[in-house]
Every structure is written in structure tokens, then in C-alpha cells.
Amino acid sequence: NGGDQFSVNGKWQHFALSVDNVEEAYNKALEAGFVSRTAPCVIPLKASIGDMSINIAFVKGPDGEEVEFFKQV
User: Fold this and answer.
1) I need a surface site. Which of 2, 36, 40, 62 has the fewest CB within 10 A?
2) According to the model, what pLDDT value does residue 30 have?
3) What is the pTM (predicted TM-score) of this model?
């Protein structure tokens, strides 16, 4: 949840994975039993290294962790 505290079970709460194909990674996660949080979509980002857009999706894992798939487009 963005804080410095560990979850009750000491598990990861969120992690991001750079992938070649966001839609494919998202669909494979759903097939494996993960739950959709945010379907793949392209969003603009403002960053210190310059503006960019990323394709991004989120799923919820079996331990409640949030898994993010992303690719710069």
C-alpha cells in the first residue's frame, strides 16, 4: 500500500514486471487464476527523463499481491 510496513504475512504487496506483450501476460495471469484489477490500457506519463506512454495492466495474485505488467510504447 505504498508504506514502509510489511503486510501481516510478510508478503509482497505490489511488484511490477516489464514485459514484451502486456495483453499476453495479463491473459496468462487470468488463465492461471489471478483476478483482474485493471485491463490493459495505454496511459501517458510525465517523467523527469521525458514524457512517455506505457501500456499497463494489473492483476491480483493468490496471496492478495498486486502484479503490474508494463511496456513503454
Assistant:
1) 2
2) 97
3) 0.81
Contact in structure between 56 and 41 (CB atoms under 8 Å) = yes
pLDDT score, position 47? 84
Q: What pairs with residue 67 in β-bridges?
A: 15, 59
Helix, strand, coil fractions of the chain, as percent rounded to 5: 15, 45, 40
Ranges of residues in the chain whose predicted pLDDT is under 50: 1-2
Is the CA virtual torsion 35, 71, 43, 2 positive or negative?
positive
H or E element that contains 27: helix 22-31
Cell of 8: 501481516
